[in-house]
Amino acid sequence: MGLASIGNVLNPKPTLRPVLTIILVLGVTLFVGALALTDFAVPLVEINNKVGNVAEIHGYVVALGHNVEDCKYYLVLVTNDRMEHIVISATADKNVVKESLLGRPVIIKAQVTDRKEDPKTKRVVVKLKILSIRSSKKQKSFKKIKGLAQSEYERGKADALKDLKANRPRYLQIGRPLSLDSKFSEILKDEYDIKFVGLGCAVVPRVAEHARGYNEVVVNEMKRRFGKDVIEAAWQKDREQRRKGTKESTKKAMNADK
């Protein structure tokens, strides 16, 4: 390319300038869009979300049980680049998740075990198996969140002591709502005078830590009073009643067909 050609590129004719400007803007837009997809898409949720895929994600882990040593079910909380909280159901083998890492910023290595996609909205819902979990390297940026989570855990314990003293204990449930045929909340209230409170799935870490601290105190006190894990006992009785109800409904349907 001669000097004249170089000059034409650097100083294009007035008629070409709008065209070159449009090309430049489109190029920058495509580049920034691709960069955003690469940097901010959430692994195992927005990308790499096929059954069997394994990846690492930054987030928080909440135990769906008061005894972490025996807990199998968890919630993984992650945030996308639109600052939307995403809650994912997860399982883990014994001793994979340490209690000291609950409610803390962590790096979670997990595998997709189930995947469902809404045909209309194209929204993907996955279930994970946690393979390993370690403290996040970005500790400096999470100091305030870590301190907040710890304070909420202690505040939950303090609130539970107040409620026990006032004879109004509650059980704070994180996760999906109870099924329509569930009698779990009624069993808790009628047999142990514990009020069931459903917090839903979309909870932030501070709420999850408050619930963990609260439930820990209530469950331990109920165990002292009744000599057993009343939460597990209520779940067991609820399962038995629903199983019995299903059998009776099936029997009635079969008799009606005869």
Question: What is the number of beta strands?
Answer: 7
Write down the secondary-structure element order.
HHEEEEEHEHEHH
Average the pLDDT over all residues and give the rounded result.
77
Strand order of the largest sheet: 1-2-3-5-4
Summarize the biggest pleated sheet: 5 strands, mixed, barrel
Distance between the termini: 92 Å
Structural summary, described in words:
- The chain is of the alpha/beta class.
- It has three domains: 3-33, no CATH class; 54-138, Nucleic acid-binding proteins (OB fold (Dihydrolipoamide Acetyltransferase, E2P), Beta Barrel), CATH 2.40.50; 144-247, no CATH class.
- 44% of the residues lie in helices and 23% in strands.
- It is built from six helices and seven strands; from the N terminus they run H-H-E-E-E-E-E-H-E-H-E-H-H.
- The strands form two sheets. Strands 1-2-3-5-4 form a five-stranded mixed barrel.
- Strand 6 (170-174), helix 4 and strand 7 (195-200) form a beta-alpha-beta unit.
- Helix 3 (143-165) runs parallel beside helix 5 and helix 4 packs across helix 6 (230-257).
- The longest helix has 28 residues, at 230-257.
- 23% of the residues are buried.
Mind sketching the topology for me?
Blueprint lengths: L2 H8 L6 H24 L13 E10 L9 E7 L5 E8 L13 E12 L6 E12 L7 H23 L4 E5 L9 H9 L2 E6 L4 H22 L3 H28 L1
Parallel strand pairs: 3-5, 6-7
Antiparallel strand pairs: 1-2, 1-4, 2-3, 4-5
